[in-house]
Design a protein that fits this description.
Chain A: GO terms for molecular function: 3 iron, 4 sulfur cluster binding; electron transfer activity; iron ion binding. Chain A: Its cofactor is [3Fe-4S] cluster. Chain A: It comes from Streptomyces nodosus. Chain A: Keywords: 3Fe-4S, Electron transport, Iron, Iron-sulfur, Metal-binding, Transport. Chain A: This is Ferredoxin. The structure holds two protein chains of two kinds. Chain A has two helices and four strands; from the N terminus they run βαββαβ. In chain A, the strands form two sheets. A two-stranded antiparallel ribbon of chain A has the order 1-4. Chain B is of the alpha/beta class. Chain B has nine helices and 27 strands. In chain B, the strands form seven sheets. A six-stranded mixed sheet of chain B has the order 3-2-1-7-20-19, covered by helices on one side. In chain B, strands 9-16-10-11-12 form a five-stranded parallel sheet, with helices on one face. In chain B, helix 1 packs parallel to helix 7. At the A-B interface, helix 1 and helix 2 of A face helix 1, helix 7, strand 23 and helix 8 of B. Bound molecules: flavin-adenine dinucleotide (FAD) and iron/sulfur cluster. The site of iron/sulfur cluster has 16 residues of chain A, from helix 1 and strand 2.
Chain lengths: 66, 397
């Protein structure tokens, strides 16, 4: 799995960090998403999928084939 | 419960689409249909009052998923055809064009529609903001206007006023509260919001209601307020709340009361669920019926409903959350502040334009608000989780 985030769409909601704290963080100054791990281990997939699903800006994209 | 072979989602927007995606992700291989009254592919509403209205984004950018992602869902999309009736016992939906659709599980995700003032019907230059076409019409109106009056001092009104002001217009924000969004933010933060608007040149008219709409040749020309003030306007935007879209369920026999009334699992009747802005469910943590109109609820409730449809449900007990962007400020709000809650700045400093406020009610911390401190507000959220997830003790007489 390969994750990409569209930073300029992110609204800093931090829902992704609540769900998958090992994969996502937020910048201290403006809360925009930081991708900690673009190719997470398989045990993270479930959380990452859920984070992408609830991201209110629909800005987390997953490529399953990569 | 026998296993579900087919799911029909009515309403193809944030809540409906998330439910459908979650079903597939959790391994549902049966037939999946989404019925929507709008003909556009599913799009997102928060950008409508922000980037789409300001012109920073082309409307297509508000689309929720790419065409490929939608195709991968392996679902049938029936768009541009509103549901007009539900036979709840047989889970049978009738549409405006005369289709009938049935499924083992029906998900009601029809959202809400913008409320209007009776006098604005048919008057050119008056607008609401709920749909993509509303945003396009309002943007076009604003581009040729000078003076705008926004009626309604909730989140949508305040946001629309900020965007219009940033487009260079003369903007007046009218509403019944002392400061915009006092109901959602409490007096302390709403006071800062009022200052932010004034500093940026929005004229605030608090503590008043619109009294009469003036027109000239069928177009709006101004507004009289309840205190007698007359305002001139080329455009009037009403942001006076919305109504759950349940008119099509009138004769379904479902319990409708400010939304589709549901149990703790968001079930409205056997085989029927409701999700998103339209759903009023029993929030077990709060011990009462709750209907939320925010973007994260649409998604989180979609996940909860998908799990329950597949027999793996839990009571839905979210910490409510919304954000709003106005001028250079990003506000994050976790929880619901009651009118009696005490506010306290717990991080940062209002003077520096970055702070976190905690609101404490009779039962402890209930709401955390971040002002240009999204990450810090999220970290403080932990303090209110208990208030929403701890089941209430039954009241002993
Ligand atoms: C302009 C605007 C800005 C917003 N900004 C924010 C924000 O900054 N932060 C935040 O948290 N929230 C925000 N919100 C709220 C958020 O967008 C909503 O909570 C969310 O869209 C709810 O999703 P939903 O799918 O439940 O309902 P909706 O988005 O209302 O979708 C319901 C869908 O059902 C369709 N439908 C209705 N009736 C029928 C029928 N009879 N048959 C078939 N289909 C039907 C509708 O056409 C619509 O497509 C904003 C809302 C608006 C309007
Ligand atoms: S959930 Fe989405 S919008 Fe929120 S911080 Fe993460 S990526 Fe950004």
């Amino acid at each position: 799995m390969k994750i990409t985030v569209e930073e300029d769409k992110c609204c800093g909601a931090g829902q992704c960090v609540l769900i998958a704290p090992e994969v996502f963080d937020q910048r201290d100054d403006d809360g925009i998403v930081i991708l900690l791990d673009a190719t997470p281990a398989e045990d993270q997939y479930e959380q990452v999928l859920e984070a992408a699903a609830v991201c209110p800006a629909a800005c987390i994209h997953l490529d399953d084939k990569a | 419960m026998t296993s579900v072979q087919s799911v029909l989602v009515v309403g193809a927007s944030a809540a409906g689409l998330t439910t459908a995606e979650a079903l597939r992700r959790k391994g549902f291989t049966g037939s999946l249909s989404l019925l929507g009254s709008e003909s556009e592919l599913p799009y997102d509403r928060p950008p409508l009052s922000k980037q789409v209205l300001s012109g920073a984004w082309e409307p297509e950018r508000a689309q929720l998923r790419s065409a490929e992602a939608l195709a991968a869902l392996d679902a049938e999309f029936v768009l541009g055809d509103p549901a007009v009736g539900l036979d709840a016992d047989n889970r049978k939906i009738t549409t405006a064009s005369g289709r009938t659709l049935t499924a083992d599980a029906v998900v009601i995700a029809t959202g809400a529609t913008a409320r209007t003032l009776p006098e604005q019907r048919g008057v050119r230059g008056t607008h609401v903001l709920r749909k993509l076409e509303d945003a396009a019409a309002l943007r076009a109106g604003l581009l040729s206007a000078r003076r705008v009056v926004v009626v309604g001092d909730g989140v949508l009104g305040a946001e629309t006023a900020a965007t219009a002001r940033q487009m260079g217009l003369d903007v007046t924000l009218v509403g019944p509260q002392e400061a915009p969004m006092t109901g959602q933010l409490g007096a302390l933060v709403a006071g800062h919001l009022a200052d932010l608007h004034r500093r940026n040149g929005v004229k605030l008219r608090g503590g008043v209601l619109p009294d009469a709409l003036h027109t000239e040749d069928g177009a709006v020309s101004g507004l009289r307020l309840s205190d007698g003030t007359e305002l001139e306007a080329d455009v009037v935007v009403t942001a006076v709340g919305c109504t759950p879209a349940t008119d099509w369920l009138e004769s379904s026999g479902l319990n409708l009361d400010n939304g589709v009334v549901c149990d703790a699992y968001c079930r409205a009747a056997p085989g029927i669920w409701a999700v998103g802005d339209v759903a009023r469910w029993h929030h077990q943590g709060l011990g009462r019926l709750v209907r939320l109109e925010n973007r994260t609820n649409a998604a989180e409730q979609g996940l909860a409903v998908a799990a329950d449809i597949l027999g793996d449900g839990k009571p839905y007990v979210p910490v409510p959350y919304f954000w709003t962007d106005q001028f250079d400020v990003k506000l994050q709000v976790y929880g619901i502040a009651s009118a009696v809650a005490r506010a306290e700045v717990v991080e940062g400093d209002p003077v520096e334009g970055r702070f976190v406020v905690s609101m404490t009610g009779p039962q402890g911390p209930e709401c955390v608000l971040g002002w240009n401190m999204p990450k810090q507000a999220r970290l403080q959220r932990a303090a209110v989780v208990d208030h929403y997830t701890r089941p209430r003790q039954p009241v002993t007489p």
